[in-house]
Amino acid sequence: MKSTALVSSLLLAQCLALSSGTASAANKAPRRTRQGDYLNRLLRRSPLSEPSVAGAAMEETVVSTTKTDRRAASAVSREQGGGPRGEAACRGSEFAQYAGYVMVDAAAGRALFYYLPEAIGNGNSSSKPLLLWLNGGPGCSSLGYGAMEELGPFRVMSDGKTLYRNPYSWNHVANVLFLESPTGVGYSYSNTTADYSRFGDNKTAEDAYLFLANWMDRFPEYKRREFYIAGESYAGHYVPQLAHQILRRSSPSINLKGIMVSLHTVVHQPQRHHGKILLHTYLQNVSFFSDHLWRNWTDYDSTVLPIIRDLMENNIRVWVYSGDIDGNVPVTSTRYSLKQLQLPVAEKWKNFYTQKWRPWFSSTKGTGEVGGYVVQYKGDLSFVTVRGAGHEVPSYQPERALVLVQHFLAGKTLPDCKNCGQDY
């Protein structure tokens, strides 16, 4: 069984990130600049100091240290089989953070690990939506990749030991729930050995749904809150399949409004990702790609397009995004997939814009900055490209990714440049 000390260590590391990261960097000799250091330079021109479209959501950020301790309130659910005593909380920064396990099969001893950084700002966690993030693979960790390398509140410096704040973290606009899924990914585990050879799309969706239902019993304030699911790569399967489970089960607690994915729709087998990430000090040499899981993946849909269509028919907002230099899930492949849906361009779109495709802008200052291209189809499906982004869009283009998710959650069209040079 996983040690509960792990959860406390992870949260403690992140609580100390602001104070220790700056001090340790100042006391070290100069070293060769690497990717983490380049990313850190985003702080110099972040929306926190230079407001932009994305920055509007950040201008009222304040420190919140008065949040009621929910661990006592959730003790009953843990005693009733909610999961091992692995929940930890951290409130020493601008937002509360929680991490722990939720049991999805008590008989098998199968539990999934989550990390929740709530929305930044006093009172924002109660007013912002809940966004579930899933990485793909199959076998990629949503903690190691999504939270620590892409859209979470912290990034890892190139020394592998020091954390620093990500100025474009998505908890500026939502409460973000990172889930290690399925069993065997990251810190999620089972006490039944056979579970590690039963991997597939259906089981992943079923366990993710059970996780959500049980997690909301532990966090009842999120019941009936606006809920969205987002992910990348093979999560182009996970996300719509989980959304489909939610629709089928008609849970009154889960108020699903929309999904946002890089559409990994037409495949013959799961795609392998060779990268591994080790965060040596804080995350104790845990690999964030499960090669064993990928090799034993036997159940997968050849396409999720019928599910996408069903979601649209049930008024679920669908945004499909793609980095325009992504070689794994390229724009061309996604366009061919969406073409199979045979969707007409939305009437309001045709009446307003003369082109099927039109640029969207991540900044409307001066002459504007193109963030990518977008088209909206009938049935509330939008396809968005992100300029200069590869497979992990929030890692390549964090500011543009934040503008993207901000407008997705608000249900607003991405900015054009008709107001360039003016306040948007």
Shape call: globular
Structural class: alpha/beta
Strand content: 15-25%
Output mean pLDDT: 75
Low-confidence stretches: 1-5, 16-86, 266-289
Instruction: Please report the total strand number as a whole number.
Output: 16
Number of H- or I-type helical stretches? 16
Q: What is the top-level CATH class?
A: Alpha Beta
CATH fold annotation: Rossmann fold
Count of discrete structural domains? 1
Round the Cα radius of gyration to an integer and report it. Answer: 21 Å
Going by CATH, what is the homologous superfamily? Alpha/Beta hydrolase fold, catalytic domain
- Proportion of residues in helical segments: 25-40%
Q: Largest sheet, described in full?
A: 12 strands, mixed
The end-to-end distance, rounded to whole angstroms, is 51 Å
At CATH's second level, what is the architecture?
3-Layer(aba) Sandwich
